[in-house]
Amino acid sequence: MSQATDSEAVREDGVIESVSGPVVTATDLGAKMNDVVYVGDEGLMGEVIEIEGNLSTIQVYEETSAVAPGEPVENTGEPLSVDLGPGMLDTIYDGVQRPLDVLQEKMDSAFLDRGVDAPGIDLEKTWEFQPEVEVGDEVEPGDVVGVVEETVTIDHKVMVPPGYDGGEVTAIEAGNFTVEEPVAELDSGEEIQMRQEWPVRRPRPSADKQTPTTPLVSGQRILDGLFPLAKGGTAAIPGPFGSGKTVTQQSLAKFSDADIVVYIGCGERGNEMTEVIDDFPELPDPQTGNALMARTCLIANTSNMPVAARESCVYTGITIAEFYRDMGYDVALMADSTSRWAEAMREISSRLEEMPGEEGYPAYLAARLSQFYERAGYFENINGTEGSISVIGAVSPPGGDFSEPVTQNTLRIVKTFWALDADLAERRHFPAINWNESYSLYQDQLDPWYRENVAEDYPEVRQWAVDTLDEEGELQEIVQLVGKDALPPDQQLTLEVARYLREAWLQQNAFIEVDQYCPPEKTYGILTAIKHFNDEAFEALDAGVPVEEIQNIDAAPQLNRIATTEDEEAEEFTDELEADITEQLRELY
Amino acid sequence: MKEYQTITEISGPLVFAEVDEDIGYDEIVEIETPSGDIKRGQILESSSGLVAIQVFEGTEGIDTNSSVRFMGETMKMPVTEDLLGRVLDGSGNPIDGGPDIVPDERRDIVGAAINPYAREYPEEFIQTGISGIDGMNTLVRGQKLPIFSASGLPHNDLALQIARQATVPEEDEGEDEDGGSEFAVVFGAMGITAEEANEFMDDFERTGALERSVVFMNLADDPAVERTVTPRLALTTAEYLAFDKGYHVLVILTDMTNYCEALREIGAAREEVPGRRGYPGYMYTDLAQLYERAGRLKGVEGSITQIPILTMPGDDDTHPIPDLTGYITEGQIMMDRDLESQGLKPPINVLPSLSRLMDDGIGEGLTRADHGGVSDQLYAAYAEGQDLRDLVNIVGREALSERDNKYLDFADQFESEFIDQGFDTNRDIDETLNIGWDLLSTLPKTELNRVDEELIEKYYQEDAEAVEA
């Protein structure tokens, strides 16, 4: 049952037995598990989550104040589904795929009212359809029969739905159609329209899952440089409040080189979603130069919206992502934050009086999380194209304690871990990703790509940086006890080099335009410049130059300025700087 | 209206009654005790034949023969512009001896969620006159920025100072004499002591702020359950004033910890499965329904800026109350016991403090071009100085380099010059930033890696070291 389906297909009626917050029970409903129902006189949307004898338990996606026992419940007999078709990009939905702009118009209010339905895609709008197959061609489920230009960036492919028999095309022509009009007919008698409907809790079929070998380039130095994510990979960003989860997620949504971005604001702040709505139409997509919104679909269930819809919003999001994957696109899905989703499960579970697992979360928490993350991957689609879904889930552990169930269960599934650190955030080191705790298991798979596309020695230089930072970590413990000046000169120099790694390379300012996005070449360039300083400085030290004099050369602090140099000038600036460093250091001996 | 004398169970703040009609969830109930007292409550759970009622004013005196009346509607707040200047109790009844309130409208206190599509992104700088906030954790109109405090710290003084001094600078000129750019204040007190309440009321009266304020008072000896209603009444009033009448409203809610305790009490009485430390699992959602009622709307004049105050049990910011709050609000102002014992007024510890909306509200054309850089640099330098303080305890000052000593001095001066301004000093943003530059100028120019070079040239004082010496 999706938002566009006619609600007159109602089959059975039940009666409300009890109401407690978002959980309502009804008798005589005759429902199947996960059927969508309309509750009460106002017709509030809900879903059946438990059946016991004649009594069905329903989670309601809207506020239930004033709903009383005795009111009717209508069963649609169908599971929660989304409308898939052109018009999903450049749109902002709530957790059950109601477009928020349409809701505002229909409700004529800045506040979200109850009991209002709106189709997920515009049913009246016509799209210009271009056929890609001809009469007489054989088509199978998943095959593309034509395209419409959904936005300036994205061609939307009209596909034969997965459940169809397929067959020979008997009629197809170019023209303007609404999403419900048939654009092609098959000899099996089936008609193909742009709109498909798909139940959100069931993954769309694919032919095969493959090992990802291309990175999702994010333009964030610490991510691309140290902890890369693959296209089709999974990542978790846990961190206490104020450590920059949302800023990191938004940077990824803005700058990663995915074709499509699905951004789920799950139980987060209203103003944050507004910022995305305001910013994305203005910002250019770094790949195409078009507005970012042209490749983005937003799903917003802010923290004060009904909790049951929070539970469904991640499924709505990933189903939309799978639809674009089927077209052969690389999709990046950001879920901010999966903890709120888990808490929604906990809240519903506790209202059902289920036996709680760890910290009150339901025992099926781990299973639900892994089912969700398994819908990511690099796929061979049923139509033979390749597409990917990368999932990046933010986690908000209570008290910043990573040992809690949501973080731990997530880490068992995902292969990239970006640990945010309150301590770094406090000293305004952003992105506040802790380089000692974070990891990426994709490095080996991705190294060939980096060697080929960035620099042959990229993995080695990166390893040098990792070693230097590790060594700094150990030395800092000693410094805490005896002070920096008690260290031998070579270790003091290592600390100095590590400081530049932190300040000039790992730190990145999301609020300065030139520094928001750093192409992989520049990431590599800054790193090699610091390594150059390191190599020259150690040579000078070996030649007997005191470490203070090495530290005090004018050129070294310039390393901090590479990041804020325009991308086109960065290479020249770096070359000059390296020359200056060499010259100034060699003057000393 | 039908009356029932069918109470079957009374347990803590909850009353269970049998009914033969269908009662809506969340509806209001009146219970009359045998002695004639009337207590109000709300439906927590409704099933055919039986309802659970949460009684606001305590269940004392209720017996199984008390009569129960169902009002057939959910809780409403009577709203009117005339509420400004009035003092109400925690359930919204006037306690200032003034005339009855003649409402323009009666509004549901639960309040619907604002459609994110209809929000206007907050980016108008509010000058609080407090350097630790304006300079480093800037507040903007429509933000929700809590004060994380602890027992014994002067959070009330800070809240009062903000309420007194907050203005939006551009509007200072040209506005009429009686302060057109000032905020209307909606003050919601939950479980504060009578003494604290007097402190607030005295200050409101002394400064004349009362006439642009609406005060809701639930005191420490008022029923705990009523505390779950008080902030909703306050926010419903604020929404009316802001979005219907065009006021810029500052909502101060204190103390959120008492509110959460009341939630826990109800949860425990209902025998719910508890979450962390016994607080209900839905506390995040419940708090969000309060905090998210801040903001601006497109095409609407007014705004709601929220400053909730909470006291962290055991000074622990990982306790569920500050923790969940921090995940919902747009930053936090952290009060610090060490700074308090050093006599700093206000004792704001800037390092764990944060304003998430700061970056969009500052900079050229809004405050000053150097604001972002100065703030970042002060943060980095103060954090470095703090680290060195630990070290100095072990190795002594002599063992540190000249650079390290400068940072140590910087940290001391930062506290004494920048933070410790007193509760009566009102600094404008230029003054705050200039003090920032005075401090930064004690460091070598090459250390200032967070500020643009042009701005360093413009503001850095070359001879500052000599002056300080």
TrEMBL record, chain A:
Domain ATPsynthase alpha/beta subunit barrel-sandwich: 119-201
Domain ATP synthase A/B type C-terminal residue range list: 448-549
Enzyme class, spelled out: translocase
Name of a matching Pfam family: ATP-synt_ab
Every ATPase F1/V1/A1 complex alpha/beta subunit nucleotide-binding domain range: 219-440
Keyword Transit peptide: no
Subcellular location: Cell membrane
Residues annotated for ATP binding in this entry: G239, P240, F241, G242, S243, G244, K245, T246
MF terms (GO), sorted A to Z: ATP binding; proton-transporting ATP synthase activity, rotational mechanism; proton-transporting ATPase activity, rotational mechanism
Superkingdom classification of source: Archaea
Protein family per UniProt: Belongs to the ATPase alpha/beta chains family.
Subunit description: Has multiple subunits with at least A(3), B(3), C, D, E, F, H, I and proteolipid K(x).
Record's protein name: A-type ATP synthase subunit A
Organism: Haloarchaeobius iranensis
Source lineage: Archaea, Methanobacteriati, Methanobacteriota, Stenosarchaea group, Halobacteria
UniProtKB/TrEMBL annotation, chain B:
Keyword Transport applies: yes
GO MF terms, alphabetically ordered: ATP binding; proton-transporting ATP synthase activity, rotational mechanism
GO cellular component: plasma membrane; proton-transporting two-sector ATPase complex, catalytic domain
Protein localization: Cell membrane
Pfam families: ATP-synt_ab, ATP-synt_ab_N, ATP-synt_VA_C
Primary location class: membrane
This protein's UniProt keywords: ATP synthesis, Cell membrane, Hydrogen ion transport, Ion transport, Membrane, Transport
Occurrences of domain ATPase F1/V1/A1 complex alpha/beta subunit nucleotide-binding (ranges): 129-355
The ATP synthase A/B type C-terminal domain, residue ranges: 360-460
PROSITE patterns given in the database record: ATPASE_ALPHA_BETA
Membrane topology reported for the UniProt record: Peripheral membrane protein
GO BP field: proton motive force-driven plasma membrane ATP synthesis
InterPro entries: ATP-synt_VA_C, ATPase_a/bsu_AS, ATPase_A1-cplx_bsu, ATPase_F1/V1/A1_a/bsu_N, ATPase_F1/V1/A1_a/bsu_nucl-bd, P-loop_NTPase, V-ATPase_su_B/beta
Domain ATPase F1/V1/A1 complex alpha/beta subunit N-terminal: 7-72
Subunit note: Has multiple subunits with at least A(3), B(3), C, D, E, F, H, I and proteolipid K(x).
HAMAP family found in the cross-reference section: ATP_synth_B_arch
PANTHER family: V-TYPE PROTON ATPASE SUBUNIT B (PTHR43389)
Protein role: Component of the A-type ATP synthase that produces ATP from ADP in the presence of a proton gradient across the membrane. The B chain is a regulatory subunit.
Family, per entry: Belongs to the ATPase alpha/beta chains family.
The protein's name: A-type ATP synthase subunit B
Organism name: Haloarchaeobius iranensis
Gene behind the chain: atpB
